[in-house]
Amino acid sequence: MRVRLDGISPIPHNATIDHANGDNEVKKHARAWIIGLAKYGIGFGLLAYILRANWDPKGTSPGISGLIEQTPDLAAFLGLAILAVVCVSIQFVRWYVLVRALDIPFTIENAFRLGLVGAFYNAFLPGSVGGDLVKAVIIAKDSPGRRASAVATVAADRFVGLFGLIWFSAVFGGGFWLAGDTRISENAYMQKIVVACSGITIGAVLGWIVMGFLPQTRADRFANRLKIVPKLGNTLAELWFAVWTYRQRPRVIYATIAMTAVVHLGFVLMFHLAVRVFPAIDPASLSEHFVIAPIGYIAQAFFPAPGGLGGGEFIFGYLYTLLGRPEATGVVGRLTMRVVEWGIGLVGLYVFLRMKAHHELPEEEDEKIGSDPPTPVPVA
Fold first, then answer.
1. Of 26, 79, 256, 355, which is least surrounded by CB within 10 A?
2. Strand, helix or coil at 3?
3. What is the DSSP string of 201-240?
4. DSSP H stretches of helix in the chain
5. Rounded CA gap, 289 and 26, in Å?
6. CA–CA gap between residue 328 and residue 149 (Å, rounded)
7. CA 157, 93, 241: angle at the middle one, nearest 5?
8. What's the distance, Cα to Cα, between the start and end of the chain in Å?
């Protein structure tokens, strides 16, 4: 028991601790709200600036107002929507394959349910707990002792997707360049993008090959060294076991990379159709979109606003200027794609509300991910 210095009344020690914890929780939630609102502000603020700057620019190029006043091409929009649904579905299947590769119990139905919930979080919510982490939390809840592995499946899915974008830009951009496509061979900016993506791709492939020569004994010793890291040791070791398992099952990675190639082909075609929904003057060619679209998707992924709002429109507009074309065309194309993404996100909201009504969503689990000790993953 703690006694106040004035001697008037004793204050239970536990009550003091609970009060302090309560204050910390309030501060934590307040900080999360402030950060979330700031992200919304950044996204909508940048989007408003871009729309205003390109609404009716001076010169011969049409602004956003001129583009959206045209009759939209409904066939192009329908094609865009169908491609979006197909690509998102393949992404869900890809994640399912990565989860099962680690022998974590999972179903294709849950992959689609949680994937849609993740799409809702990514499209609309700016919180620190993004769609990827929400998916990891839920599958970790059903996999005691494998929490870090569950997180690893989501990280692996994101990495494969990112690598696919870089590889896609390098291969197709380089192919068009070698084929003598003047839109790339005469554009220094496009050439720099292709060279950078090629360098990253080669480095990643070499790292993957070198890791294949690592014997099991060395892998085990490295895991034991990770365990001594304060607080994070067990989690890091479990993540390492997950990575090592993927390397021992290369067919899984090759299959997911193949799926990723199909997805990114679809995403390039989606943007190619999006800039044609509101018929543009001198839109970029398919070969140019093969180079700039993957770069745009990568860049917007690092923008803090929900779904890269504002950042996506800015980067695609900027990439269009590198092609010597109207910035407004790139901006409107990205906005058109966003309409479809919001539609998928709303479906995810419906799934989210149903899961919440059935108490299938864990609360405050994100802080506990990775707290379980690592379990060696059997390698087949």
1. 26
2. strand
3. HHHHHHHHHHHHT--HHHHHHHHHHHHTSTTTHHHHHHHH
4. 13-54, 64-68, 74-101, 108-124, 131-141, 147-178, 182-185, 188-212, 216-227, 233-248, 250-277, 286-301, 311-322, 327-357
5. 47
6. 44
7. 40
8. 58
Phi, psi of 11 (to 5 degrees): -120, 120
Mean pLDDT of each 10-residue bin along the chain, 380 residues long: 46 54 67 80 87 75 75 91 96 92 86 91 69 75 70 81 83 83 78 88 87 79 80 72 80 89 92 88 82 85 83 91 86 92 93 80 48 38
Residue 308 DSSP one-character state: G
Instruction: Compute, in degrees rounded to 10, the torsion defined by CA atoms 301, 304, 305, 311.
Output: -60
Give the separation between CA 352 and CA 114, rounded to whole angstroms.
8
Main-chain dihedrals φ then ψ at residue 326, nearest 5 degrees: -60, 130
What is the separation of C-alpha 87 from the centre of its chain, rounded to a whole number of angstroms? 14
The CA-based dihedral angle spanning residues 22, 27, 29, 33, taken in that order and rounded to the nearest 10 degrees: 160
Whose structure tokens read 């870090």? 148
Two structure tokens written together for 38: 């700031």
10 Å CB burial of residue 156 (0-12, 13-18, 19+) is: buried
Residue among 266, 330, 345, 272 nearest 300 (CA) = 330
Instruction: Report residue 278 as tokens.
Output: 């509101």
CA distances from 290 to 91, 166, 186, 286 (A): 19, 11, 16, 6
